Amino acid sequence: MGRRKQAAEEPEERSVLAGAVVVVLLLAVLFGVLFAVSDTAGILATVAACTAGVWWSVTRRVSDSSATPPPGEDRPSCRECAGHTFVSATPSETQKGMWIYTSAPPDRPNHTHVHVVHAPAEEVSER
């Protein structure tokens, strides 16, 4: 009796993979029947299905929630940055919302001053 109560309380988790296998098998049966009826019908159905799949993947919107926000007008500043020439602002490839600012001091042409700055949390979540 205890086992029945536990089984009733805990519903069985459905696997996404199992659903995908069922869909693939149904499509295989459908295309098998189409090819058995007529080779031309099977080929046309295959081309139509592939075209629909490509069209769907091309027109589907991709979320831009992971896009790095653009650099703001206010660059990082420190005592060493006074009088520096702005060189670049590059988004970090490994950290979401992190920017790498580089500047060049006027008296040292072969030196680059680097700041690694996190964008404010509200800027990262907005974009």
Q: Any key phrases for this structure?
A:
single chain; about 130 residues; alpha+beta; 3-stranded antiparallel beta sheet; 4 helices; about 45% helix; elongated; disordered C terminus
Report a brief summary of the structure:
The protein has 127 residues and is an alpha+beta fold.
Q: Structural class of the helix and strand makeup? A: alpha+beta
Q: Fraction of residues in helices? A: 40-55%
Ends distance:
54 Å
What is the ordering of alpha helices and beta strands? HHHEEEH
Please give a structural write-up.
45% of the residues lie in helices and 16% in strands. The protein contains 4 helices and 3 strands, in the order H-H-H-E-E-E-H. The longest helix is centred in the N-terminal third of the chain and has 22 residues. It is elongated. 4% of the residues are buried. The C terminus is likely disordered.
List the helices and strands and how they pair.
Layout: H1 2-9, H2 16-37, H3 39-59, E1 85-91, E2 98-104, E3 113-118, H4 121-126
Antiparallel strand pairs: 1-2, 2-3
Helix pairs in contact: 2-3
